[in-house]
Amino acid sequence: MAMPVPEPAEHGVTSWPGASNTLGSEPSAYLRQHADNPVFWRPFGDEAFAFAAERDVPVFLSIGYAACHWCHVMAHESFEDQETADYLNAHFVPVKVDREERPDVDSVYMAATQAISGEGGWPMSVFLTPDGLAFHAGTYFPPVPLPGRPSFRNILEAVHEAWVERRDGVEQNARGLAANMADAQLSGAVRLDGPPEVLDAALLPDALMLLARSEDPDAGGFGDAPKFPPSAVLEFLIRHAAVPSDTADAARDMAGRALAGMARSALRDQLDGGFARYSVTADWSVPHFEKMLYDNAQLLRVYSHWVRLGGNEVFPAFEAAAVASRCADWMLESLTLPDGGLASSLDADTVVDGVHHEGATYLWTPGSLRDALGPGDAEAVARMMNVGAKGTVSHLGSPLHPARELSDAEGRLWERVRPELLAERNQRNQPARDHKVVAGWNGLAVSALAEAGAILDRPDLVTAAETVAGYLAVVHWDSGSRLLVRVSHDARARGIGGLLEDYAFCADGFLALYAVTGTKRWYYLAEELIEAACSRFVENGHLADSTGESAQVFNAQGQHAALDPFDNATPSGAAGFAGALLSYAAYSGSHEHRLMAGNILGLLPPLATRAPRVAGWLLATAQAGLAGPVEAAVAGPDSPLRRELHRALLMSPSPGLVVALQSDDDGGSPADMDEVPLLLHRSGAPDGSPQVYLCRDMVCERPLGEVSQVQSRLVGMASGG
Predict the structure, then answer these.
(1) Which residue, 130, 478, 551, 658, is most buried by CB atoms nearer than 10 A?
(2) For every residue of 357-379, which 3-state class applies, written as one string?
(3) Across the strands, what pairs with 316?
(4) According to DSSP H, which parts of 390-430 are helical?
(5) What is the pLDDT of residue 7?
(6) In angstroms, how far is CA 74 from the centroid of its own chain?
(7) 397: which strand partners?
(8) To 10 degrees, what angle do helices 248-263 and 317-335 make?
C-alpha cells in the first residue's frame, strides 16, 4: 500500500490524511471525555494498529477510566495542549482505552508497565510497536520535568528518537519483554482435568499470621499509604472466624479493626454511606474520592457478613448493620439506571466553573458548616468530624469523619444534623456518573444486595437484586450463543465478550439470589454461565482469563493465554470462578466441578505463604471448601415455620453454606424447569411440616424440623462434628 503524503499543519509539524480524533461516537464515558482533545485519539482495535504499521510509527497507548483524578490532570496538562498534541499526532498513533471496558488490555499492559518502570497505576502511558509489543511505559507524566520524573514531552521525544535511530534494539527489547511475560503466565499452572489437588488446611492459619505482620492495628487494614479496602481478605477473615480454631479469635479481631477503621473514617462518606476507592493516608483520613460500584458491592457484602457473624467489642454488629444499610442505599440511589442496571462509578472530581477539583462536593470548612447549621451545632460538628481551619485535602476543606466511635450524645447530634448537611451538599455541583454497566460488577452487586437484604431483613434490597439480575439476564446474557457481553450502554450490550471474572461474578450472584429467594430461574442461569465459562475459558485442560479478544494483547503476552491469580480491586477471575464452581458443585452434586474448583485452589500454596493480601478470595474459597461446604435443603410447603427455618440458614456464618428452598410458585420460572438437584427426593415431614436436610457432598443427615436444632447442628458441623 502506498504511504499517504503528509500535509503541512500548524505549529511546524505534520498531520496525516484521515487522521482525526474519532472518540466522539464512542459509548464509553472515559473515551468521550477525550473526544475534544486536539490529540488524534483512536479506540483500541485492529484499525489503529494497522494505521501505525502504515505510517511506520509507534502506538502511544493511554489507559484510564472515567472517575480517575490523575487521568483528568494529565488530560488537562498534556492532552488539551495543542503543541503537545501536534507532536504526539506527528510521531505516534494515539490510542485511548477505558480500562473498565477492556480489562484484558489493561492487565497485559499494566504487567508490562510494572516490568519496565517498576510502578503501575492510571493514567497508564505505554509505547507499543505496531503489532502490540510494549517497549517503554510509565504512568502519569507531568508537563514539565519534576525531580525523578521527566516531562511528557521529554518522554515523547526520547521515544521517537529511539524508534528512528535504534529501531532494532527497541524491537528486540519488546520481543524479550513479551517472552518474559509468557514465561510468567500461570494459565498452564492450573490443570482443571488433572488429578485432584489436596488442600493443606494449615495454609489458612499460616496465611492469617502473615497477614497479621502487615496489619495496621491502630487504623485497621493492611500496609501503609496508599491504603485500599481489603474486601476479599476481610471475607476470608470473617469465614475463618466462623470456624472454631486457635486462630479464629485473631481473625475476628483483625477483621473488626479494619471494618471499624474504614466505617468511622473519611473513606466512608459519613453523609450518604458510599465508600471511596482508597485513602492516600494510612489512617483513612484523606480519600481518593471516586466511588466505584465494585468497591461498594464488596464492602456491602462484607459488612453484612460481619453482622451475621455477630461482630465484636471493637465493632459491634448493630453499627455494622447501619453501615451496610446506608451503603446499600447509596448504591441504589446513586448508581441505579432507568433500565435496571447499576452504573460503574462516580467521578473523583467535581467540575466547578469549568475546573476539575478533587472531592470538591464532599469538603467542608468551619464556615460552610456554620452556613448550613448555625454556630452552635457547627462548632460541635467541626470538632466531632475533624474539620479545621486548614483543609486536609485542599483549600476547599476537609471530608467529614470522626475517626473513632461516637458517644451516645454525639450519635444523637449526628443523626439530627446529617439530613441537613446532606440536603445542603446536594445543592452543590455533583461529580459525574459513568453510566456504563459492567456485567461482573453488577454480579457482585446482586450477591451483596441479596445477602444484605436477607441479613438486614430488608426485602427491598432483595427486590433490587432481582431487578439487577434480570437486567443481566436480558441485556448481557445471550442464551442462544451462550455469550455474556461485558459492557452495556443504554440497555444495549456491545463490545467484547465477558472475561472469566464476568462469568464468575454473575454466576455467584445468581446462586446467592437463588439461596435467598428459592427462584429456580437464578440457579439455572448460574448453571448456564458456569457451563459456558468452562467451554470458553478452558482449553486443553488449562484455564485462562480471556479468550484472545485482541491479536495485539495476545502478542504482548508472548502469544500465550494468561491467568492472573492475584486479587486486585476485585477478586481474580480464577478465584471468583473457583468460588462459583464450589457452590455450584454443592447444589448439583457434580464431582467434576468440585474437582475443577479444587484444582484452581492449587494456585493457593505459594500465594498463601508469600502474598496472602492478594489471595483473599482464594483463601475465602479454600475456607468454604474445607468446611464442606455444608449443603442445606429446605423442604415442605410454605409456612411461617419454613420461612423461619430458611432465615436461620441464611443467618448462619458457616463458610460456603449453600441453601436450596423448595419452591411453590417460582415467580416467573418456567413450570417445566427441573428441581434443583440438592432438593431431589427431599420432602416435608409426614405431618406436612417443613424440615431441613443438612448434607455434605449430597450425603444428608436426619432431617430437622426446629430452628434451634438447625442452628445447633450448623455450629457442630462448623466444628468438624
Answers:
(1) 658
(2) EECHHHEECHHHHHHHHCHHHHH
(3) 311
(4) 408-425
(5) 41
(6) 25
(7) 394
(8) 50
Give the per-residue pLDDT at 665.
53
Q: Can you point out the beta strands (E) in 192-339?
A: 278-279, 287-288, 291-292
Contact between residue 575 and residue 565 where contact means Cβ atoms under 8 Å apart: yes
- 3-state DSSP percent of the chain in helix, strand and coil, to 5: 50, 15, 35
CA distances from 210 to 244, 283, 602, 607 (A): 19, 21, 19, 11
Under 8 Å between Cβ of 616 and 607: no
Q: How high is the pLDDT of residue 2? A: 34
Residue whose cell numbers read 484452581:
600
For 342-385, how does the pLDDT look when each residue is reduced to its tens digit (9 = 90+)? 999 999 999 988 888 999 999 999 999 999 999 989 999 999 99
CA distance 590 to 577: 15
Report field, pTM of the whole predicted structure over 0.70? yes
The three-state secondary structure class of 145 is coil
The residue type found at 534 is C
- Which of 510, 513, 467, 514 shows the shortest CA–CA distance to 491? 467
For helices 573-588 and 616-626, what crossing angle results, to 10°? 20
- Do residues 275 and 326 touch, judged by C-beta distance below 8 A? no
Mark the ranges of the chain whose per-residue pLDDT is less than 50.
Answer: 1-14, 666-668
First to last CA, the chain: 74
Helices of type H across 63-151? 69-74, 82-91, 103-117
